[in-house]
Each structure stands twice: as structure tokens, then as C-alpha cells.
Amino acid sequence: MNPSRRALLRTGAGAALAAAGLAAGAPAATADGSRAALVTGGRVRNLTGPAETGRFAAPWTDLGIPARCPDGSMLFVCGDTFDGGGVGGPDWRSPVGLRSSNASPGALAIDGSVGGAHAVGLVPEGHAGGTTAIPSDVFTVGSTMYMHLMRGVIYRTHHSDFWRSDDNGETWQYLCQWPGDQYGGQFQQKTYAVADDGYCYVLSTAFNRDITSGLLLHRVPQNALGDPAAYQPWGYAGGAWGWGNPPTTITGARRWGEICFRAMGGKYAFTWLNMAPLDIRAQVFALPTSNLFTTPEQTMILPTVPGLEVGNAVASPYGGFIVPGSTFADFHIAVSQWFDNQNYRVMQYRINGLAA
């Protein structure tokens, strides 16, 4: 089945930006429209593709959310995955797990999969009526891995659900789910920062690139991740921000693509696919409750058209998930690409000049 239900990223925005001379790098965009230091970057390697992952019956796949496993390997959890000659080929699975036995950002290479020679779907998903299971985050707390999925026809999320693995992602057990319309749909796509204070901090948006959504913040004790009642919202009420208030957006509403939130280097990093204008951005801040309305937005990946990819300019980019082991001085992200049925892959990019 050809997954034409997914809205492809338009290359027109990339062409417009390239024509404006924004193809090789971009300064950080601040809330007042001023510019900071230049952020640059470049492709390190393709992580997936016929040459890289075809031997696992996964030549065509995307997302590749990276999580360091308890055994020290790296698991990349991917979205819609196909065998055969291109996107829409046979053996549609989602999600799948691909492995790099070396977890160093400088030496990543897929050399295994969950399922061995044939990457298997990590959870039951028959794709009846065009439904799928799209991962929005995978992360590790102690000896347990967690995975959050958005379920339903693409961009019509019926519910999201949450799973755990105690064997490095080989098998997954269901924990809980949330309705797709919770908080007006703004709790569909979730990403988790594992903090050192016993909490995970959770950012969420609607999962639909075509609609405007706020960005909500919750916290949940790390020993209660599978209990929806334990998720405490952060919101503005009675003239003050506070935990337990009804959730309100913590930054300006916009059209969001994929999001990724991580605690690292004594700070927090948030990366996302921005839809208007199309690019992949980052914010770095001190606390989960920092003011994101005024935190500079740093552009890491810019769009371009096929054949004009250079530096951090990518044709039809999305994703942008932070690779574990990154530092602000050596920052790596997993970037997806899809502009035709044989250009659908996950790539690793190194970002230079990120202000922290």
C-alpha cells in the first residue's frame, strides 16, 4: 500500500529559501527577530537505505528515534517501513527497531534489528483501514526502555499509547493510553526529558503538520510513567505559572512537526520540525519551566531541492531527534528525508555552533 495519506513536505519552501540565499547555514532566530551566531552542519552518514538496512528487509524507513539501550547499544525506532522497490512496497511495518552495536555518535552503523534478518513490527499493528503506529519518542530510565506511539490514520490520531521493554527493546509490554482529543488534541505527540530530580518532563503537541497547536508541558515521576493520572500539567492561572494548573501553551502556537526534548549537559535541549517556515530548530534552556517565548530559536537544518543539498541544507527534511551521547559542542541529530518513493531514509547530521 502506498502511504499517500501522509502529507509530503513540499520542496517549494526549500526552493524559496535557497533563492533567498539561505542554503548553507542560518543564524539563530530570537524572539524579537534579531540574529545570533551562525549555526552550520553537515551529513555524517546515511543510517538507513537499501545499502545500509536492506539486509534487514527495511530498505525504506524513516524517523529513526535514537535511544541508548541498557546494554550500551543504540536502538533506532523507525516509522512506516517497507521492503521491495520503494515506499509503498510490500511488508508494511511500523514501528520497527534497528540497532547499532556501537553507540558512539561518531561510529553509528546499523548492524542488527529487532527480529534478526527481518525487522519485525515492535507492537501489533495490522494497518487495517490505513491505520499505523507512529513513534514520537523512545527513551531509557535505568534498565527499562519506554516508547510512545500515535495510533490511527495518519494525522487523525485516535489515541496514543505507551509501552515498556525490559530486554533492550526486543519485546514490548503495553502500559496505558490517552484519547486523541485530550487537551484539544495537544497531548497526541509527546517527548520526554529524563531529569536527575526523579521526574520526566513531557512536551506535547497535536500530531498534524497542517494545524496550529500549542506546546504543553507536564511532569511525571519516573516510577509512575505508565499512570496517566500521575502526569501533572504546567499552566498559567490566577496571574502565575504553576504545576497543577490547567495546561497552557508554553510558547507561541504554530504548526509543529516532530519534536524531541532531552536533558543534557546540565541544561535542556528541545528540537523540532518547524513548518512555517520549513526548517529544523533547537532551543537550549536552563529549566523545563524556562520561558520559551523569549529563548532564542536556532535553525539547524534548512530545506532545499534535490541536487542542491550541501552543508545543513536538506531536501524535504523532517525529524531532527537528538542522538544520545551528543554534547552541545558535538551535537548530532537523526534527520529524515522523503521526496520520492526511493528517497526515503534516516540520516545523521552533526550541528556546529549551537549556542548553549
UniProtKB/TrEMBL annotation:
SUPFAM superfamilies: Sialidases. Residues 1-31 form the signal peptide. InterPro entries: DUF4185 (IPR025442), Sialidase_sf (IPR036278), TAT_signal (IPR006311). The keyword Ribonucleoprotein does not apply. Residues 52-350 form the DUF4185 domain. Keywords: Signal. This is DUF4185 domain-containing protein. It comes from Streptomyces castrisilvae.
